[in-house]
Design brief:
Strand content: 25-35%
Order of helices and strands: HEEHHEEEH
Distance between the termini: 9 Å
Number of domains: 1
Structural class: alpha+beta
Oligomer: single chain
Number of helices: 4
Radius of gyration: 14 Å
Helix content: 40-55%
CATH topology: Beta-Lactamase
CATH architecture: 2-Layer Sandwich
CATH superfamily: Dynein light chain 2a, cytoplasmic
Number of strands: 5
Amino acid sequence: MSIEAALTSAMETIPDCIVAGYIDMETGMLLGASTTDDADAEVLDNLAIAVANLFQGRGVQAFQDLLESAGLQDNDTPGFGEIAVFSQDRLHIFLRTREYPEHVVCYICHASANTGLALTKSHLSLGPVAAAV
């Protein structure tokens, strides 16, 4: 299965999902994408560049260091595995894959999506999406 097919399949299970992308943080490249609207594809291209900073930026790194020093985070993990960002009209879900820690799967849903269900379904999609790489 291609990465685009895996992302499309995942989008069908995640409530109100309108965009899915697979991003390599080392290069900032979008390795695969699926959208319900071609206008949203441009959003993913711009988002791909920002994802590395979101997961590996200085502020996030300082926060992770603080959690480690307090004994609240295991220092063997490569950083945050999941980040959810709520904007006025969108829910952005970013998930780091276990198989490829430098890769992130991004799902963008309408803000009206059931957050718990969207997070659960996006987690369930990680295995098949990573297997398609």
